[in-house]
Amino acid sequence: MPTVHFTDAAGATTTINANTGDSVMETAVRSGVTAIVAECGGSLSCATCHVFVSEADLPTLEPMGEMEDEMLYGTAVDREDNSRLSCQIRLAEGQDLHVTTPETQV
Amino acid sequence: METTTIPSRAGADAPEPGTATGLLIIGASQSGVQLAISLRALGYTEHITLLGDEDHRPYQRPALSKEFLQDKVGSESLIFRTNDYWIEHNITLVKGERIASLDSNADGSGTAHGTSGTAYHYTRLALTVGARPRLLEAPGAELDGVVYLRNADDALRLKELAPTTTDVVVVGGGFIGLEAASSLAAMGKHVTVLEYGPRLVGRAVGEETSEYFLAEHRKRGLDIRIGARIKEILDDGDGALNGVLLEDGSLLPAQIVLVGIGVIPNTELGEALGLEVNNGIVVDAGAVASDGTTIVVGDVANMPNPVPGAPTGERIRLESVNNAIEHAKVAAYSLMGRSEEYAGIPWFWSNQADMKLQIAGLSTGFDSTLIRRDSGKGKFTVLYYRAGRIIAADAVNAPLDFMAVKQALAAGKSIDPVAAADTATMLKTLIA
Q1: Which residues of chain A lie closer than 8 angstroms to B41, CB-CB?
Q2: Which residue does chain A place closest to B72, by CA atoms?
Q3: DSSP state of B13
Q4: Which terminal CB of chain B, N or C, has fewer other CB atoms within 10 Å?
Q5: Which residues of chain A does B84 touch, with a Cβ-Cβ cutoff of 8 Å?
């Protein structure tokens, strides 16, 4: 079972056991992690599921596509080198991922 | 759970089973779900009942015409929240229940009577009942293979019919029609789109964007008929749909006719409560209806135009996810006794084949446009101006343009049209 640790801007961490194949965004939203908004439901249209991936976990992810890269320039909190849209990160069996959520998404 | 079963106040001889709640939200929709979630985030402590007429847990609709139809995502992906979430937040979900009538009191409390025979006593009421598809009026429109696409059962029905279908006629060249047509074409169906009006998506985009989509969809193999008039939907003599006859004499084979010709707001409960109704249920800037207590949110609400700088008194009804969410947040403040006026830049999206359209702002009333096109990258943007200031943009595969315009509008700023004509210039750098 994959696990995702969400740390909010204030430093509080929520750990959620996820389903293999689900996105990080779906995992967050369904369990009520309010720091992920995801207005468009994961169709790569809104840039409101922005996360910062821990440096240690970053190399384990598939590289991002061009649309995601462009969308990241429109996030409410400015992107960093470790920024991703969490709807585009699919969780693999056994994956243990650490992300930080920005102060706001809209 | 705070829900308690109490004897019904109605029904003298055969008491209805009843439940009591603080806030009854009728409509387990995007806006209903958001209202419940926002209230809990704001610290609302009353028990909430979220009631819907479908036999599904509350789910997201946008994928129904796209990823869900094409089996790219399963039904579990559409679910808004886990069951645990609702339980932990003291929100009771009621599925498969329709409210037949309402008894309301002057203080906003009342009783909703479900068709199941259950009475729901509430302290406050919210209507997030959305809209329903406009029905096609044509001979044969009652045939089994004539389908609509608004809810999950519609999509499931379409998926059930798809394997034995080779030809689909889509009636309506709007967002739903074009999204579904693109999905069905990707599923290997031969698809014809009939648009009654003079151009595609006429209600939501300008002429340049309509022309762009017409050309691009035709390039991708969709047969699109502009100005098409249906004479009759035909069956094979045994009641099975087998074609569409147009007034110009063309005969289109079809086993499915998918209708997407707009929606009608579900105002009936509002009317029953005596609320002011005019193209939706009329609400103030805080999402409160004319009785001063009923909360009305989302597609069904006719509200003051939320765009900053819009003419005073101008009203609008918006059909979008963005509005359902943002309007619900404002309504949640109202229920908490805080006055927060709805102000924001409406935005919309529509994914059709490999084209991702994003719309920022409302283009109504524009007097000039500017096109930015990068054919090599498949990017296409129309900027809409009124009196020299930007008011909206349609951006296809151009999220940077979309987001720059959204940011400019939110900041009350504009983007110089002369400088914007150079596609090598990032719009973000022109916000002033």
Answers
A1: 34
A2: A43
A3: S
A4: N
A5: 31
Q: Helix (H, G, I), strand (E, B), or coil: what is residue B432?
A: coil
The secondary structure of B348-368 as a DSSP string is EEEEETTEEEEEEE--TT--E
List the single residue in B with minimal CA-CA distance to A87: B77
Of A37, A41, A47, the CB nearest to B60: A41
Tens of each residue's pLDDT in chain B, 432 residues:
344 444 444 444 455 678 999 999 999 999 999 999 999 999 999 999 999 999 999 999 999 999 999 999 999 889 999 999 999 999 999 999 999 999 999 999 999 999 999 999 999 999 999 999 999 999 999 999 999 999 999 999 999 999 999 999 999 999 999 999 999 999 999 999 999 999 999 999 999 999 999 999 999 999 999 999 999 999 999 999 999 999 999 999 999 999 999 999 999 999 999 999 999 999 999 999 999 999 999 999 999 999 988 889 999 999 999 999 999 999 999 999 999 989 999 999 999 999 999 999 999 999 999 999 998 889 999 999 999 999 999 999 999 999 999 999 999 999 999 999 999 999 999 999
Task: Name the phi and psi angles at B214, rounded to 5.
Answer: -60, -50
The CATH number given to B354-430 is 3.30.390.30
Residues of chain B contacting A41 with CB distance shorter than 8 Å: 60, 62-63, 78, 321
For B64, the closest chain A residue by CA position comes to A41
Question: How far apart, in whole angstroms, are the C-alpha atoms of residue B1 and residue B184?
Answer: 44
Topology (CATH level 3) of domain B10-132+264-335: FAD/NAD(P)-binding domain (3.50.50)
Domain layout of chain B by residue ranges? 10-132+264-335, 135-261, 354-430
What lies within 8 Å, CB to CB, of B14 at 6+ separation is none
Of B62, B84, B400, the CB nearest to A41: B62
User: In this complex, do B321 and A41 lie within 8 Å of one another by their Cβ atoms?
Assistant: yes
Distance from CA of B399 to the nearest CA of A (A): 6
Q: What is the Cα–Cα distance from A26 to B395, expressed in whole angstroms?
A: 26
Same fold across B10-132+264-335 and B135-261: yes
DSSP state letters, B58-122: SB--GGGGTTTTTTSS-GGGGBSS-HHHHHHTTEEEE-S--EEEEEE-TTS-EEEEETTS-EEEE
Token readout for A79 is 């992107």
From the number of C-beta atoms within 10 Å of its C-beta (0-12, 13-18, 19+), residue B215 rates as exposed
CB B67 within 8 A of CB B357: no
φ and ψ at B219, to 5 degrees?
A: -60, -35
Which of B80, B349, B428 is facing A45, going by the closest CB pair? B349
pTM: 0.94
Does the distance separating the beta carbons of A43 and B67 come in below 8 Å? yes
CATH number of this structure's domain B135-261: 3.50.50.60
Q: Which of B65, B320, B321, B329 to mutate to test the interface with A (most CBs of A within 10 A)?
A: B321
Nearest-angstrom CA–CA distance, B411 and B403: 12
